Amino acid sequence: MPNQHYSPSRLQRALAGVALLLAVAIAGATWFIVNQPRDGTGTGIALVGGPFSLSDHNGQRVTDKTFLGRNLLVVFGFTYCPDVCPTELQVVTAALESLGSRADDIQPLFITIDPQRDTPEIMKQYVANFHPRFVGLTGNLEEIAAVAKAYRVYYAKVDSKSGPNDYLMDHTSIMYLMDKQGKFLKHFSYTTDAAALADGIAGALAP
Ligand code: NI
């Protein structure tokens, strides 16, 4: 094409890039909507949770069976998270403290979705900032993928250009309360404050 003022191929590449981004965004949003756990009588409830096999923050192997007989309060995240995760763990800590002895049977778990950086040692240092009963769990990529799938947790690495070890993770930030047999009881949004979380837990565990 003579005398062209722009490169059609470059424009086409740009449009294709936009289309791809849109497709990824729509796929992500759809995945999120389809996989969100539901309150009440929604059919999604029974599907949240299940068997897992991971390493705790002392390097000991644990499974879902390790915690049978306790109510799990499960939070997924990563220790490099700048804001949402630490806020959520502080809220869990404050809620458990305010529940006092009523929270004795609750085992808070922080499961990393960034196992490449979150080693047991890193997890141990991190959870020490929060409730003393917190247990940090990590594993290999397959183990983390399996437990995230069981809890319908979405996560994805957000690439950064500044270095291979310098990245953020997108992830579902929902808190899951499980019964003593490991079955899903209730979930809480990351925007829940400590008082509402404590009330919600107390209500869900009331006989
Ligand atoms: Ni986070």
Can you give a write-up of this model?
This protein is α+β, with helices and mostly antiparallel strands and 207 residues long. The protein has 2 domains: 29 residues; 153 residues, Glutaredoxin (3-Layer(aba) Sandwich), CATH 3.40.30. The protein has 5 helices and 9 strands, in the order αβββαβαβαββββα. The protein has a 7-stranded mixed sheet with strand order 2-1-5-4-3-8-9. Strands 6-7 form a two-stranded antiparallel sheet. Helix 2 packs across helix 5. The chain is globular, with a radius of gyration of 20 Å. It starts with 7 loop residues before the first helix and ends with a helix. The N terminus is likely disordered. Bound molecules: nickel (II) ion (NI).
In short:
The protein has 5 helices and 9 strands; from the N terminus they run H-E-E-E-H-E-H-E-H-E-E-E-E-H. The longest helix has 28 residues, at 8-35. It folds into 2 domains: 8-36; 53-205, 3-Layer(aba) Sandwich (Glutaredoxin), CATH 3.40.30.10.
Task: Produce the secondary structure layout.
Layout: H1 8-35, E1 53-56, E2 61-63, E3 71-77, H2 84-99, E4 106-112, H3 120-127, E5 135-138, H4 141-150, E6 155-158, E7 168-171, E8 175-178, E9 184-188, H5 194-205
Parallel strand pairs: 3-4, 4-5
Antiparallel strand pairs: 1-2, 1-5, 3-8, 6-7, 8-9
Helix pairs in contact: 2-5
Bound molecules: nickel (II) ion (NI).
